[in-house]
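Predict structure. Input: histidine kinase, 345 residues.
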Amino acid sequence: MKLKQLLGLIYASILLCIAIGTTIFLKLMYIDTRTASYVMSTAIISTLLFAIINYFVIKPLLDTIMNLQKASQQNARGHYTTLNKYPFATELAALTKDYNTMVKQITQQVEELKQSEKEKNEMIANLSHDIKTPVASLIAIGQALSDDILSDDEKKRYLESVSENAQRITILADELMQVTIDNSSENTNVITDEIMVDDILIKVLNAFKPRIDHDQREIMISGFETIPAIKANEDVVYRILYNVIENSLKYSQSGTPIQIDVKVDNNMVNIEVVDEGKGIPEEDITKIFQRTYRVEKSRNQATGGHGLGLFITKNLVEKLGGKISVKSKIGAGSRFSVALPIYTD
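Output follows.
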C-alpha cells in the first residue's frame, strides 16, 4: 500500500471514529436537544479543523515526500531534476535543499565527465591523424632507400628526415602516455629527494642542443650559483623544465634569445623562463594550463603538439607542492615561473 493511500485510510478512520463516538456519547448520556446540538457542532467543527490542518499541513509534507521519491526515480534514470518548492517544516526544507545541492553537484560532475570524454576523443582523433603523416613519410623513405635510386646527398637528407619523423612520433606517443599517467595517478604522491636544479637544467639543455644550434639561439642563464637544493623528483623536474623550455622555443622566432633566471623567494626556488615570442592574449592566460587548450586555434605542423604540455607541467608542479604561473604581453614574449619547495631535513 502506498503512503498516500495509507494516510487517507487513517484520516477516514479518524473521522468515522469521531462520528460514531459522538453518536454513542449522545445516546448514552441522554442529553437534551440543545446540549446535543452543541456537542454535534463541536464535533463538526473539530472535523473541519482536522480537514483544514490536513490540507494545509499534512498534505504539503506528504507531497514533498512524494516529489522527492519521483525526482529520485528520475535521477536514477539519468534525468537529473531539482525541486522548486520548499516545505515550511525545517527538517524537510533542509532535506530538500540538500537534495537539490546533491543533484546540482552530480549534474556538474556528469557534464565535466562528458567534456573530459569529448576532449579525450578529440585528442585521440588528432593524435591518430597526426601520426599518419610521419609514418607515411617513413614508409616512402624506406621504399626509396630499398630501391637504391638515391644519390649520397639525397640519402643523407632522407636519413635526416627519418630522424625528424621518428622524433615527432616519439613526441606524440609521449604526450599520450603522460596524459594517461596523469589520469591514472591523479591522487598519488611523487617520491621526493634532495635535487640540484642546475644539474637537471644542463641535461635538458643538452637534449635541446641540436635544435638550439640549428635555430641559432642564445640561452642566457643567471642565478644558479647560490641556489639551494630543492625537494623534488629528478625525473619530474626534468619533465617540467623540458616542457617549459620547449614551449618557449616553439612559440618564439629562430635567432631570439631565451633567458633562464633562478632566485629564492619564501622558501621556494623560483625558475623563470623568458622568451621574446608572440606573447599570449590576456583572455587566454587563465586557460593555457587546461588540457588540449591551445592559444593558436588552428593546429599546424610548425608548432605541433595538442595543448597537453602545459597541462601536464602544471599537474607535475602541483604534485611536488609547487606553483606555476605566466605573465605575457602580445608582441613582447612570455615569462613562465615555476616555484618548487627548498629541500629541508
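The helical segments are 3-29, 33-76, 90-147, 152-184, 197-214, 234-250, 309-319.
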